[in-house]
Specification:
mainly beta, six-stranded antiparallel sheet, Jelly Rolls, globular, four-stranded antiparallel sheet, single chain
Length: 178
């Protein structure tokens, strides 16, 4: 068995509808302050902004690869928007999977158990951090339609980076292959 990877961000996201408890993270383009190389541009990229005081979420939708066997670990590369003091961010993730040809209906499907993890934001403004969340994948199977929710639990007392955004630069899902 080996490990498979599904790149989720940068990529397409589905945003919640903005109603109570369904607030979405916004995206922005960042521009490096580094010096452009000869005959080249400065670095640009996209990032998702997760607020420091309001829980925000995004959803990634994809078809589970045919070599999926088990597991699901979400990897999140992110940075603090500013500041240098000690602080933590509480991330959360969950999955919903629907098998085609069965009786499950995506429009009535609920997310599996929401998993959370607390990660130190580091003390260097804009320094890249990496967080992992082990997801509950109890109903996921090869070729399923899958939705992964990523969110920040900003109102959790353990989330102490409460004055700035957490800026997500990349997200991927690793799994065990057949």
């Amino acid at each position: 068995m080996a490990t498979g990877t599904i790149l989720l961000w940068p990529g397409e996201v589905t945003l919640p509808d903005g109603t109570s408890g369904n607030v979405f993270a916004q995206a922005q383009i960042f521009k490096s302050t580094g010096t452009a190389p000869t005959n080249g541009p400065v670095l640009f990229g996209t990032e998702l902004l997760f607020d420091g005081t309001t829980d925000e979420h995004v959803f990634f939708a994809f078809g589970m690869p045919q070599d999926y066997a088990s597991g699901g670990t979400l990897y999140i590369n992110w940075k603090r928007a500013s500041g240098t003091g000690a602080a933590d961010v509480v991330w959360k993730g969950a999955v919903a999977a629907v098998t085609p040809g069965g009786t499950e209906v995506p429009n009535t499907k609920a997310l599996n158990t929401v998993a959370t993890t607390t990660t130190n934001a580091g003390t260097t403004s804009q320094a890249l951090q990496q967080t992992t969340i082990t997801l509950t994948m109890d109903s996921a199977a090869a070729r399923d339609s899958v939705w992964v929710m990523l969110g920040r639990d900003a109102d959790n007392a353990a989330d102490t980076l409460n004055v700035v955004d957490a800026q997500v630069t990349s997200v991927w899902l690793e799994y065990t292959t057949t």
